[in-house]
Design goal:
Elements (H helix, E strand, L loop, with lengths): L3 H11 L7 H6 L6 E5 L2 E4 L4 E4 L2 H4 L8 H11 L13 H13 L4 E7 L2 H18 L7 E5 L8 H5 L4 H4 L9 E4 L4 H11 L3 E6 L3 E2 L5 E2 L4 H11 L3 E5 L23 E4 L11 E6 H5 L21 H16 L2 H19 L6 E7 L2 E6 L5 H15 L1 E2 L1 E3 L2 E4 L7 H19 L8
Parallel strand pairs: 3-15, 5-6, 5-7, 7-10, 10-11
Antiparallel strand pairs: 1-2, 2-3, 4-12, 8-9, 11-12, 13-14, 14-17, 16-17
The chain binds pyridoxal-5'-phosphate.
The site of pyridoxal-5'-phosphate has 15 residues, from helix 6.
């Protein structure tokens, strides 16, 4: 086996990491090279263990190397690893679609697979656009998104994004969209009043804007968004790539406000964080708008090579089974409450912390603004890493996104490490542990 130093040097010679300034990456301390994982811990090539405080970028649900999911993927390997869904079908894709529809907000009936959250969003945007064109309203080409929105990094998803730092440079490449003030249904209503007849759909991250730094929508907002869309005959796309699969305490965030979108995007947690798979769920009304004879040209001309990959579908089925078998959502409520208590007592009280925001197992800790707050957030994550936890900054916000399976004991450790890292990095005092 190669040493960590050898691997790190080969990494620096050839890899280009996502969302990473490589100049910093190559001059900093050695990167952690993950060797294996167990439950909610990652182990590096030197044998050090780390709490996975961001569930491997918000997607691990039941822990790493979960026996049920491992077994499902292994069993599927003995059948077929991949076959196309163009002109063929297979049992894992069929069974997963049935299961998704059974747990999705009532009214969603069709599952279109893809392989990343961004692709699931592209699919939803194209479906909305084409649906209107085929209904004889081709002038509905626009989309309304929310300020600070994040829907992925492909160009269509960037066009409905609202994070200046990530998105503004690409404007010349993008179709236009209107931005509504997040959480302000009145403003959305005004926009639709003015432009509604040219709008195909409104797209939102229900309840929590994740990449924006865990910004919480006011209660009832999602419901008002659905009403505004209905009032103007506009479609609603809910991007549940981050919030879906139990993150907010319900299987889907929409279910907190009894909203059914016309299109719903899932990704990240869908396979329990095992394999790349995403899906766009549609109502029968949307689906029927695409039916016709071949010569009618109503086909949805979209599909990825690995659409509905059988291994990924098997992992997703096992993930959903595990929700039932381990009563994951039931057990989550008291753990989310514990997390809230720990954060209130140990983190919110720190002088370096401006605000702690939480919904279920989505946490954003906003640091007090100061000239170099992004640097501070980075220092915090490096300090946490040295203490044995992987957490990530988003601008001046520290994100905690533990797997839903994280034990109470590890939640306590995660918050304690985070509190100490913030206190040390912001020179604030650390209050006595509670
Ligand atoms: C992560 C994310 C995406 C993009 O998913 P990828 O799998 O990274 O392409 C889209 N929407 C939301 C809300 C996300 O959090």
């Amino acid at each position: 086996m190669r040493t960590t130093a050898e691997l790190a040097s080969a990494d620096r010679a050839h890899l280009w990491h996502p969302f990473t300034q490589q100049q910093g990456w190559c001059s900093e301390e050695l990167p952690i090279v993950v060797d294996h994982a167990e439950g909610t811990h990652l182990y590096d090539t030197d044998g050090n263990s780390y709490l996975d405080g961001v569930s491997s970028l918000w997607c691990n649900v039941h822990g790493h190397r979960h026996p049920t999911i491992d077994a499902a993927v292994r069993a599927q390997l003995d059948r077929v690893a991949h076959c196309t869904m163009l002109g063929l079908s297979h049992e894992p894709a069929i069974e997963l679609a049935e299961r998704l529809i059974a747990i999705a907000p009532a009214g969603l009936r069709r599952v279109f697979y893809s392989d990343s959250g961004s692709a699931a969003v592209e699919v939803a945007l194209k479906m909305a656009f084409q649906w209107w064109a085929q209904r004889g309203e081709p002038q509905r080409t626009g989309f309304v998104c929310l300020e600070n929105a994040y829907h992925g990094d492909t160009l269509g998803a960037v066009a409905v994004g609202g994070i200046e730092q990530f998105h503004s440079l690409y404007r010349p490449l993008l179709f236009e969209s209107w931005q509504a003030r997040a959480g302000d249904a009145g403003h959305l209503s005004e926009l639709l009043e003015r432009h509604g007849d040219r709008v195909a759909a409104v797209i939102v991250e229900p309840l929590v804007q994740g990449a924006a730094g865990m910004l919480m929508a006011p209660e009832g907002y999602l419901h008002r968004v659905r009403e505004c869309c209905d009032a103007h005959g506009v479609l609603l796309i809910c991007d549940e790539v981050a919030t879906g699969l139990g993150r907010t305490g319900r299987m889907f965030a929409c279910q907190h406000e009894e909203v059914t979108p016309d299109l719903l995007c899932v990704g990240k947690g869908l396979t329990g964080g095992y394999l790349p798979l995403a899906a766009t769920l549609a109502t029968e009304r949307i689906y029927e708008g695409f039916l016709g004879a071949a010569e009618d040209q109503r086909t949805f001309f979209h599909g990825h090579t690995y659409t509905g990959n059988p291994l990924a579908c098997a992992a997703a089925i096992a993930t959903l089974e595990t929700f039932e078998r381990e009563r994951t959502l039931e057990l989550l409520a008291p753990k989310a409450q514990l997390l809230a208590d720990l954060l209130a007592h140990q983190v919110a009280v720190l002088p370096g912390v401006a605000e702690v925001r939480q919904r279920g197992f989505m946490v954003g800790i906003e640091l007090t603004a100061r000239p170099s707050h992004e640097q501070t957030a980075r220092r915090v994550t490096l300090a946490a890493r040295r203490a044995g936890a992987i957490i990530r900054p988003l601008g001046d916000v520290i994100v905690l996104m533990p797997a839903l399976a994280m034990s109470e004991r590890d939640l306590r450790r995660l918050v304690a490490i985070t509190a100490t890292a913030i206190a040390d990095s912001t020179h604030g005092r650390l209050p006595a542990a509670v």
